[in-house]
Structures are given as structure tokens and as C-alpha cells.
Amino acid sequence: MKIVFTQFTPPFEHGMTEMEYLRYDDWFSKLRKAFAKNEEVFFISLTKNKKLITIRHDGYNALFFPVENPDQRQSKGRMWYENNEVCPWLLKQGPHVIHIIGSGSQMGLKILKTIRDPLLFLWERCTVNENTLGWEELDLCDYYVHPTLESIERALKKVPENRLLKTPLGADTVFFRPLDMERQFDIVSAGRLTPAKGIATLQEVVNKRSYSWIHAGGYVKNAPYTKAEDILFFHKIRKLFLKYPIKKSFSGKFCSGRYQHHDMLKIYNKAKIMVHPSSSEGTARVVQEALCCGLPVIVLKKAVPWIEPEFGIALDDLSQLDYAVQSLLSDKKKINTMGKNGREWLMANHSFSHLYDIVTRFNHMEKPEKEKCPRN
Questions:
Q1: Counting beta carbons within 10 angstroms of the beta carbon of residue 321, is it exposed (0 to 12), middle (13 to 18) or buried (19 or more)?
Q2: I want to staple 41 with a disulfide (CB 3.0 to 4.6 A). Which of 60, 65, 204, 374 is the partner?
Q3: Angle at Cα 23 formed by Cα 17 and Cα 25, nearest 5°?
């Protein structure tokens, strides 16, 4: 069987090279590698390089086609990057299955309009909203794949039930696991320092309660750091030209920076709980990783609706964050119990092996009934 996976948010949008992207060991990377053991697998994405980049990696061929409109980028929730060689290449290759990972890309829409014969899966990795439900690709794909039941319920407004599929989250319960380490930080958080991630609100809670805190995904400024620490850290960066320096407070209570994926196992295991106050998420990978490491989590219900009370706290809004953090950190027994429950829940329902088995079944499905009628 010939299988094509696509991801049209290019590596450079993540600040990565093409090789760095392929080496990033998440659920998607594991899926490509696993299927390449027994099937002919291709991965397609885009590059800002002016020529096609082809890389053989983990048993499959990865092709990065040049972006032809690099200045267009994103608007109205859609990624507008285009390349006119992708569809002719697909027609020539004749794959049996195409998995388009992520809705809202112009390239994904172009494939769905042009390529008819393969089994076509559109994977939703972000929040389904009224804007998403108006996108043309929801009608064109054979199956619309979702990570949560909540996402499927929203999609039912537009897509018939027989074309909606659910996958396990694909949590990496092998690499991410509890370690016998000192839990030196009260809180771990992760994500870019944007308003949607809610880190500023967490920062206020940390300052108010004098918690110890480690953040992965950016350099926190101002309190809890002192002005001197802010000034010295950025002077140090300019002086040493380090790619990923770590910003540590003199007291050792605060730490922030950009960590490599393989460093995150120890980062999670240094903390007692994970707080992820983001207002918009897809599958919330960092929450999964923290749960794998035995940490209870605090999230916003609208962003991570799959959190159960046995292993996490789902808030209605950020005004509840201070009390939730305070109550959880004051109960060590509850932290241990919830942490154990979270890992067991992921292993029983959402491990990578669960994901692989489900996608294997997808690859052998028949086209849905709508295929008896020609597409518009």
C-alpha cells in the first residue's frame, strides 16, 4: 500500500530546518515511521528553499516543495501557502491513501479538489468553530478525523456522522514517564508567550503565592525575575550567542527557556503539577506529556475538554486559576493519586499503539456513500 502524509504548515513556521522537523519525535513522526516498516510511505510539506528538497528518513521519503507565495502566509485562520507541483506529483504517484494533517491549508484544499481516487482523510488538530465549519474541504474529504468526542459533536453541524472518525491521542507513554527525581518546582508550564496561552495570568498567580515555577517555550520577563536578572540574562545571550540558553533566577525558584523535545522528560519530572491555561488547543500535546510523567494538570475546559476530574482540573475561566492551583498544591496525596490516574488513563485509552491500530483500520476502509455521486 502506498500512503502519503501531508503537513502544510512548513517547518520554517516552527523555526526548524527540514531535518529538524523530521527528527522531532511526536505522534505524527512515530506514525510515519511505523507505517514505513511495512508500507511505501511518503511525507509532503513545504519549504522556503527555492528548490525541491528530498530526504530519506526513518524508512520513508520526505518531500518539501518550494512555497510559491511566501508573502501570503496566514489570514482568517487559513494557511495560504501554495505550490503547483504537489498535485501533479500525487497524480503520477497514485497513492492508495492520503492523510492531510490539519484543516485550513490552501494546499490541502487543492489536493481534495484535484485528487479523486485515493482514500482521503482530513485530520482536525485545532478547535472546530463556525469559521472552520464553513471550509470547503469538509465536504470534499472522504473522512474528517478528530481527536476528541467534543470536536466531533461540533463537526456534526456540517459533516454527516458516517464521515466522522475519532482517533486516540497517541500519547508517547514510553518516552514520557515518571522518573525518580526531586520535584523542585511547584509548577511546570509550556507554550509560546502569547496572550492565547494564558501564561501572563499564571505569572500573576506565581508572583502572588511565591510558587517555584519552570516554563518551557519562551523567556519569561519581569516578576518573578528581578530587574537585574532580566538585564543580566539578555546581556549574557548577546555575549555568548547561545541558541537555547536557560534563564534561571539567582534563587533557583524560577527557570524559563526554549528546550529541545528530548529535554522535556526531565522538565516535567522536576515539577509537582502542570498548569496549561491556554484558551485554544487541538490535542494539547504538552498536557498529554505531563500526564504521562505522572503530573496532575490544570487546564481551561474550553481548550482541553477531555480532562477528567480523576487526573485534572478543568476550569471555566482563568479567574478560577489561583484557587485551583492553591488547593491542588496543598494536597500532596491528591497530587500523587491524580498523577497516577492520569498516566493509567492514557496508557489504557490513548497510547501510540492505540493510534497506530486505529489508523491501520482507516487505511483499509471503503469510500463513504457520498462517493457514488460525483463531486462538484
A1: buried
A2: 60
A3: 130
Give me 84's grid cell: 503547483
pLDDT in tens, 329-372: 999 999 999 999 999 999 998 899 999 999 999 999 999 976 44
Among all chains, which residue has been given the C-alpha cell 482536525?
124
CA 358/CA 355 separation, integer angstroms: 5
- Shortest CA distance to 18 belongs to which of 41, 68, 42, 52? 52
Whole-number pLDDT of residue 374: 39
Q: Are 107 and 8 in contact (CB under 8 A)?
A: yes
Q: In which residue are the cell numbers 504517484 written?
A: 93
Instruction: Residue 235: give the domain boundaries.
Output: 185-350
Counted domains in the chain: 2
- What pLDDT was estimated at residue 370? 63
Q: How is residue 180 annotated by DSSP?
A: S
Mean pLDDT, consecutive 10-residue stretches, the chain (376 aa), reads 95 90 90 97 96 97 95 79 96 97 93 95 85 92 91 92 92 93 96 92 96 94 90 66 76 91 94 95 87 97 91 96 97 97 94 94 90 41
pLDDT for the residue 373 = 39
Asked if residue 273 is part of any domain, the answer here is yes
8 Å CB contact between 185 and 271 = yes
| Same domain, yes or no: 190 and 310 | yes
> What is the distance between the alpha carbons of residues 366 and 370, in angstroms, rounded to a whole number?
11
Residue 150 sits at φ, ψ, to 5 deg, of: -60, -40
Q: Name the 3-class secondary structure at 68.
A: coil
CA–CA dist 156, 162 (Å, integer): 10
CATH number at residue 193: 3.40.50.2000
> Whole-angstrom Cα distance, residue 81 to residue 220?
32
pLDDT of residue 148: 84
**Cα 141–chain centre separation:** 22
Cell 526531565 belongs to residue? 266
> What are the CA-CA distances from residue 50 to residues 53, 74, 83 (Å)?
9, 20, 11
Cell of 226: 528581578
Asked whether the beta carbons of 149 and 124 are under 8 A apart, the reply is no
